[in-house]
């Protein structure tokens, strides 16, 4: 299959897929089409009106003044009605389609697997969400309107022209192959360049996103010039591709107009032939010329939307490339109100999709309900990955994970994750109130429950001191709070969830000694009645654990209590003496 044929097939598939979003909107779309059809039919009426006016002037028909003005008003009233119906319902259909696409995109993003976000550039992803949808929006509003309105207008004018004189009108058909070749070539070129343009704009978006997220690091390292150069290079690439698009468009439009003008010129030449002049009235000749003269404007507008349509197809490809990603697997059907908290890892092996090395290898151990287990090891030993497999953030490559002797793959995802509360070292808060951040995902919690969670997390004092208390907006990712305050809000969220299994991934890393002491005490109280996995380096946390699982290079090298492992003088003792004691 040739490249052009492949692109044509892909474009056709994209067209049909976009048309699928008209489901339930076909009635409104039909009203829009009807409105533009009414408008288009009025175009030949103008040519006929011109013919009647010229004939009236030529025959000195004074009585026509009592009829033709009302005919003119009537024609423009019909045009106005058609234009209103066409535009209004077209905008309604366009806005509805975009709303559906945006909602479907968001719903799909929620269920995409973690591996997709690990591999996707956030800047490119945001650009696809924004630019891709914007290009589609432009097409389904402006381009669709021009396509339907001017398409019907051309059909109506050509039909009227053939009715008046089919021999002269054949000139347009003779030049049609040239227009088809021109459109085909420009379409192929536009789509290729548009894809490169969107990629370059995505790179620029990524640089912008990184600057906003890491502005403190950029300024701290004096890297303003470096970031400016990165952004400038991305913009330069986008600028060059944009120029190519403008160049193709600028060449295509006048060439298509030249072809149409050539047809009009040939018709004028033939129309002035003495045979036609002798056999037609002045009104008939002017009416036919008016019909022909109205065609170039519609053809120009119709040819001008080719760029918009091709960019919309590229935008649709960007959107569909996200929608086509397989969602997170959720094939389990087991549900339980509340698990007891027994956890077992059996021969667990795992590697990330982008890696060739195992992050975990033959990991096996069991945890009893209510037991606190500390996962200890150097950075990169697999502690956080092991904990993430418990709530199925990633699919297990080899081996099994059990909760209450039920394979986690057999649980419904929502039910499994309902049993587990997570507090990570990377605190994630939302641009919302303190109340909604603590009760995240469940609006049914009462203020008493929320305040109880704050009390347990030793966060009630600073929350009460905020301007609006629980209703204080905390900014993007809790920007209005200190690091320790953000961490305690995150911990309060986990307390409120009251899940039987708790994962604390460096949960006290952002707290000062006084705050850590309070949180450690609260965690101890919480851990008395639930299974707790603690990923920590601090000695104070490790000493409270019932058991230590010591990991290195994705494998368990030792396990036991702190005192026993120190007395053993093995890997943990060396790790403790070289690293942990320094904390």
UniProtKB/TrEMBL annotation:
Regions crossing the membrane:
27-46, 66-89, 146-163, 169-187, 251-272
Keywords, in A-Z order: ATP-binding, Cell membrane, Lipid transport, Membrane, Nucleotide-binding, Translocase, Transmembrane, Transmembrane helix, Transport
Domain of life, per UniProt, equals Bacteria
Residue ranges of domain ABC transporter in the record: 343-578
GO molecular function annotations of the record: ABC-type oligopeptide transporter activity; ATP binding; ATP hydrolysis activity; ATPase-coupled lipid transmembrane transporter activity
Report whether DNA-binding shows up as a keyword of the record. Answer: no
Kindly list the places in or outside the cell where this protein is found, as annotated in its UniProt entry. Cell membrane
Concerning InterPro entries, the annotation shows: AAA+_ATPase (IPR003593), ABC1_TM_dom (IPR011527), ABC1_TM_sf (IPR036640), ABC_transporter-like_ATP-bd (IPR003439), ABC_transporter-like_CS (IPR017871), ABC_transpr_lipidA (IPR011917), P-loop_NTPase (IPR027417), Type_1_exporter (IPR039421)
Q: How does it sit in the membrane?
A: Multi-pass membrane protein
Q: Which GO terms describe its cellular component?
A: plasma membrane
ABC transmembrane type-1 domain spans which residues? 30-311
Q: Known Pfam families for this protein?
A: ABC_membrane, ABC_tran
Q: Where is this protein chiefly located?
A: membrane
> What is the name attached to this protein's record?
Lipid A export permease/ATP-binding protein MsbA
Please name the source species. Ketobacter alkanivorans
In the UniProt record, the gene name given for this protein reads msbA
């Amino acid at each position: 299959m040739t490249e052009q044929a492949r692109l044509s097939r892909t474009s056709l598939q994209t067209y049909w897929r976009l048309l699928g979003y008209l489901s339930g909107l076909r009635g409104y779309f039909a009203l829009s089409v009807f409105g533009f059809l009414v408008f288009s039919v009025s175009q030949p009426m103008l040519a006929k009106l011109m013919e009647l006016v010229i004939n009236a002037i030529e025959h000195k028909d004074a009585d026509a003044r009592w009829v033709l003005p009302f005919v003119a008003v009537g024609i423009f009233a019909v045009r106005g009605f058609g234009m209103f119906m066409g535009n209004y319902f077209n905008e309604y259909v366009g806005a509805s389609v975009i709303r559906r696409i945006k909602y479907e995109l968001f719903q799909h993003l929620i269920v995409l697997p973690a591996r997709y976000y690990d591999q996707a550039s956030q800047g490119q992803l945001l650009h696809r969400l924004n630019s891709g949808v914007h290009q589609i929006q432009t097409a389904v509003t402006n381009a669709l309107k021009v396509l339907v309105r001017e398409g019907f207008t051309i059909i109506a004018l050509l039909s009227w022209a053939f009715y008046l004189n089919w021999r002269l009108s054949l000139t347009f058909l003779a030049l049609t192959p040239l227009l088809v070749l021109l459109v085909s070539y420009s379409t192929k070129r536009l789509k290729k360049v548009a894809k490169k343009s969107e990629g370059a704009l995505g790179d620029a978006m990524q640089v912008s996103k990184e600057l906003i997220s890491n502005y403190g690091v950029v300024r701290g390292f004096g890297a303003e010039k470096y970031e400016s150069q990165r952004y400038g290079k991305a913009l330069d690439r986008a600028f060059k591709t944009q120029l190519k698009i403008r160049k193709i468009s600028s060449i295509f439009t006048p060439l298509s107009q030249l072809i149409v003008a050539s047809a009009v010129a040939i018709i004028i030449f033939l129309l002035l032939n003495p045979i036609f002049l002798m056999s037609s009235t002045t009104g008939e000749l002017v009416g036919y010329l008016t019909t022909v003269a109205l065609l170039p404007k519609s053809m120009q507008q119709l040819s001008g939307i080719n760029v918009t349509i091709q960019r919309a197809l590229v935008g649709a490809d960007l959107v569909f490339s996200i929608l086509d990603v397989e969602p997170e697997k959720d094939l389990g059907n087991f549900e339980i109100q509340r698990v007891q908290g027994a956890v077992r890892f059996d021969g667990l092996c795992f590697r990330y999709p982008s890696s060739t090395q195992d992050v975990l290898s033959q990991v096996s151990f069991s945890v009893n309900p209510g037991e606190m287990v500390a996962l200890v090891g150097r950075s990169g030993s697999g502690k956080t990955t092991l904990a993430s497999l418990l709530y199925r953030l990633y699919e297990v490559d080899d081996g099994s994970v059990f909760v209450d002797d039920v394979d986690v793959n057999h649980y419904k995802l929502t039910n499994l994750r309902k049993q587990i509360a997570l507090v990570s070292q990377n605190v994630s808060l939302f641009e919302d109130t303190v109340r909604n951040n603590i009760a995240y995902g469940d609006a049914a919690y009462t203020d008493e429950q929320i305040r109880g969670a704050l009390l347990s997390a030793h966060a009630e004092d600073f929350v009460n001191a905020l301007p609006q208390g629980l209703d204080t907006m905390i900014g993007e990712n809790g920007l209005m709070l200190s690091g320790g305050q953000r961490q305690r809000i995150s911990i309060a969220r986990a307390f409120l969830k009251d899940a039987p299994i708790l994962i604390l991934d460096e949960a006290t890393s952002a707290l000062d000694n006084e705050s850590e002491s309070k949180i450690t005490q609260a965690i101890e109280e919480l851990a008395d009645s639930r299974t707790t996995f603690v990923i920590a380096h601090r000695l104070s946390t490790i000493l409270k654990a019932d058991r230590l699982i010591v990991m290195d290079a994705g494998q368990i090298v030792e396990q036991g209590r702190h005192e026993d492992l120190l007395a053993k003088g093995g890997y943990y003792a060396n790790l403790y003496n070289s690293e942990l004691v320094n904390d």
